[in-house]
Write a structure and sequence with these properties.
This protein is α/β, with parallel strands linked by helices. It has two domains: about 240 residues, Aspartate Aminotransferase, domain 2 (3-Layer(aba) Sandwich); about 120 residues, Aspartate Aminotransferase, domain 1 (Alpha-Beta Complex). Helix content is about 40%, strand content about 15%. It is built from twelve helices and 15 strands. The strands form five sheets. The protein has a seven-stranded mixed β-sheet, with helices on both faces. Strand 7 and strand 8 form a beta hairpin. Helix 1 packs antiparallel against helix 8, helix 3 packs across helix 4 and helix 9 runs parallel beside helix 12. It is globular, with a radius of gyration of 21 Å. The structure holds pyridoxal-5'-phosphate. Pyridoxal-5'-phosphate (PLP) binds next to helix 3 and helix 4.
C-alpha cells in the first residue's frame, strides 16, 4: 500500500538510547532535558529567537490566539487544514474568509484588505504546502490597520524567504510536528516569536500559568510536550537533510516521468525569493471529474493520494459560508500525490503511468 505520506522512523537503537536515559532519570515530562535540548536545536536550525515545543500544532494556534488576545473577527484562509479555522472558532472569535491567489494558493492580500472592518483584530494565514504567503504586503496591511498576524506554518518547516526563516514574519508562527509532517515528534508542534514579551506570556500559558509551584501568573492550559516526544524529534534531526534531499529527488522524478509523457499538470507556483522543503506534491487536474477518475484508478492499485484540501474551509458547518470562486475551484481539482523518503523510482513511475492513462 502506498499512502500520501509515510512517517520517517529513525533506527530503533537510536530512539532506545534516549529511552534508556529517560528510564535512568525518571524525568518523563514537564519541560525535561530532552524538550530543552530539542528547543535549542530547533532555534539554531531554524534561525529564530523564541521557540516553544508544545504537544500539537493545533494548541500552538490556540495559544497564539490567546497570547495575542484575539477577539472579534479574524481574516483567514479557506485553503488550509481544518485546524486553522477551528482554532479561531474554538477561541470564540469569528473567521472571515478571504479568497486565495490562483498561482500560489496563499491568501489574497487585496481580498484581505476589502474585508477589514472595525472589529477585525487579526490575520491568520497559512503558508500552504510550505509556500510563503505574501508576507511583506500582509505586514504593511497589518501595520496600517493595527492588526496582528499569525502564520500557520505547519507545512513550512525549514522554508526560507528572502534569506531568513519564514518563521521570522508575523507576530507569531506556529508549527506542527504531527507524524504526517516533514519533521515530526509523533504528536507535537511549536510556537515561534521574536517578541520577548509575547514569549514570556506563551511560556506561562503553555504550563497552566504556573509561576513556581504555588503561584500563577495568569490563565494557562496544558501545552507541554513529553520527553518521549522530544526524543523522537532528537532522533530524527540527524536525518532531516537526507529526508528533504530524498523528497526533492522524488519530486524531480515525478517531473521527469510526466515530461517523458508530454504531460504538464498545473502546479502551485513557488516564489523566487523562497526555498522549498518538498513537504507536499500537489497537482491540479482539469476538473473534479478528472481528479476522481485518476484517484479511483490509483486506489484500485492500493495507492492513496489525498485531497488536501477539500472541501474548502468556508464550507464547514459552523462558519458563515460565502462564495469564494478561486478557492472553490482549486479545492475540487487539487490532489496531493504520494511523497516520502523511501518511495521508490518504480513506484513513482507506476503512479505517473496510472495518472497519465486516466487523464482523458
Ligand atoms: C497538521 C496541520 C495543523 C494541525 O497540527 P496538529 O499537530 O495535527 O494539531 C494545523 N494547520 C495545518 C495547515 C496543518 O497541516
Amino acid at each position: 500500500m502506498i499512502n500520501v505520506t509515510k512517517s520517517f522512523l529513525p533506527p530503533i537503537e537510536e530512539y532506545n538510547s534516549y529511552l534508556q536515559r529517560i528510564w535512568e532519570s525518571g524525568h518523563l515530562t514537564n519541560h525535561g532535558p530532552f524538550v530543552c535540548e530539542l528547543e535549542e536545536k530547533l532555534k539554531q536550525l531554524l534561525g529564530v529567537k523564541h521557540l516553544f515545543f508544545v504537544n500539537n500544532g493545533t494548541i500552538a494556534i490556540q495559544i497564539a490566539l490567546k497570547a495575542l488576545e484575539i477577539k472579534g473577527k479574524v481574516i483567514t484562509t479557506p485553503f488550509s487544514y481544518v485546524a486553522t479555522s477551528a482554532s479561531i472558532v474554538w477561541e470564540n472569535a469569528v473567521p472571515v474568509f478571504a479568497d486565495i491567489y490562483q498561482d500560489d494558493l496563499t491568501i489574497d492580500v487585496n481580498e484581505v484588505e476589502k474585508l477589514i472592518t472595525s472589529d477585525t483584530t487579526a490575520i491568520l494565514a497559512t503558508h500552504v504546502y510550505g509556500i510563503p504567503c505574501h508576507v511583506r504586503e500582509l505586514e504593511q496591511l497589518a501595520k496600517k490597520h493595527e492588526l496582528k498576524i499569525i502564520y500557520d506554518a505547519a507545512h513550512a518547516f525549514g522554508v526560507e524567504y528572502d534569506g531568513t526563516s519564514i518563521l521570522n514574519f508575523g507576530d507569531i508562527s506556529t508549527l506542527s510536528f504531527h507524524a504526517t509532517k516533514l519533521f515530526h515528534t509523533v504528536e507535537g508542534g511549536a510556537i515561534v516569536t521574536n517578541d520577548d514579551e509575547l514569549a514570556h506570556k506563551i511560556a506561562y500559558m503553555r504550563n497552566f500559568g504556573h509561576n513556581g509551584q504555588e503561584a500563577f501568573w495568569g490563565v494557562g492550559i496544558n501545552g507541554k510536550a513529553s520527553e518521549f516526544h522530544a526524543a523522537m524529534g532528537l532522533s530524527l534531526l540527524p536525518y532531516l537533510e537526507k529526508i528533504i534531499h530524498s523528497r526533492k529527488e522524488t519530486s524531480l522524478l515525478y517531473n521527469k516521468f510526466f515530461e517523458d509523457c508530454n504531460i504538464n499538470l498545473e502546479r502551485p507556483s513557488i516564489k523566487n525569493a523562497s526555498t522549498y522543503n518538498y513537504a507536499y506534491l500537489p497537482v491540479l487536474f482539469k476538473d473534479e471529474a478528472q481528479l476522481l477518475k485518476v484517484r479511483d484508478a490509483l486506489n484500485k492499485e492500493n495507492i492513496f493520494p489525498r485531497r488536501y484540501f477539500y472541501p474548502s474551509l468556508n464550507n464547514l458547518p459552523y462558519v458563515q459560508n460565502k462564495n469564494l470562486p478561486i478557492t472553490e475551484n482549486v479545492a475540487v481539482r487539487i490532489l496531493c500525490l504520494p511523497l516520502y523518503h523511501d518511495l521508490s523510482t518504480l513506484e513513482v513511475k507506476k503512479i505517473v503511468d496510472i495518472i497519465v492513462d486516466n487523464l482523458s
